[in-house]
Specification:
Blueprint lengths: L3 H18 L8 E5 L5 H9 L4 E4 L2 H10 L7 E4 L8 H7 L2 E5 L2 H10 L7 E6 L16 H8 L5 E7 L8 H21 L8 E3 L6 H6 L4 E4 L1 H4 L7
Parallel strand pairs: 1-2, 1-8, 2-3, 3-4, 4-5, 5-6, 6-7
Helix pairs in contact: 4-5
The protein binds pyridoxal-5'-phosphate.
């Protein structure tokens, strides 16, 4: 049995230490606990330690767990997997954040399906920062056009950028795509007044935590280092 409490405490300490080292505040970096493949009991344990942000990749699995955890009303749920358009309605109804917007059509559907009673859905553009053939994400040179399309949508709030860089052999190599994503965010911020309020860089996982915090990550996504191996690996 992985010790979720110990693992999580260690990661909080690590984030605090790295943020300080990078001249940033601990509170500027949010830990997103990636709970895909983990049972709702594991989420409950992390919640008891104060963790509130959880990330899920698979819609049905997430909805089942949300039902089991309905008493924990202040959990902030992030959808971090690719979205098919037939799943957009449920995602818009049951999540607070979506990290993986890579085309205008999916953004339009999410906005159209967001219930009136909810506040705007927070979204990030997923950027294909290493220009990999096989990876999803908007190409760097199309990010501004997509951002401009999204800010027109009434029920979405564009927050920033997300990426899953290729893994590289050395820390300094690993820093390059993270720096590139940070640069893209700052270019977007200065490109128009409506984009100047973007405030989110969702980048950094267990392996590139330090580099991500140095480059300005505001959301770090970590799964197995908190919860141990996934029970339903996908
Ligand atoms: C699964 C996943 C993670 C977490 O990965 P771990 O290896 O479990 O830490 C982070 N980001 C995304 C987009 C994921 O799909």
């Amino acid at each position: 049995m992985p010790n979720i409490i110990d693992n999580l405490s260690l990661i909080y300490q690590k984030i605090e230490h790295l943020a300080k080292k990078a001249g940033r505040h601990q509170g500027d970096v949010t830990l997103l606990a990636v709970s895909k493949g983990q049972p709702s009991s594991a989420i409950r344990q992390a919640y008891a330690l104060g963790q509130r942000h959880f990330g899920e990749n698979y819609l049905q699995e997430a909805l089942d767990k949300q039902q089991q955890l309905a008493d924990l009303t202040d959990i902030c749920w992030h959808f971090i997997g690719p979205i098919q358009s037939n799943k957009a309605r449920k995602v818009a109804e049951h999540f607070d954040w979506v990290h993986c917007i890579d085309r205008a059509s999916i953004a339009k559907r999410l906005s159209a399906c967001r219930p009136e009673k909810n506040s705007s859905l927070n979204v990030c553009l997923q950027v294909n920062i290493d220009s990999e053939e096989s990876k999803s994400g908007v190409p760097v040179n199309q990010a501004e056009a997509l951002a401009q399309a999204i800010i027109e949508l009434p029920n979405l709030k564009l927050r920033g950028l997300m990426a899953i860089p290729q893994s590289r052999p050395t820390a300094s190599e690993q820093q390059k795509p993270l720096a590139a994503l940070a640069k893209l965010l700052s270019n977007l911020q200065s490109s128009s007044p409506q984009l100047s309020t973007l405030d989110t860089l969702s980048m950094g996982m267990s392996a590139d935590l330090e580099a991500a915090i140095i480059e300005g990550a505001t959301i770090i996504r970590i799964g197995t280092a908190i919860f141990g191996p996934r029970q339903t690996p996908k």
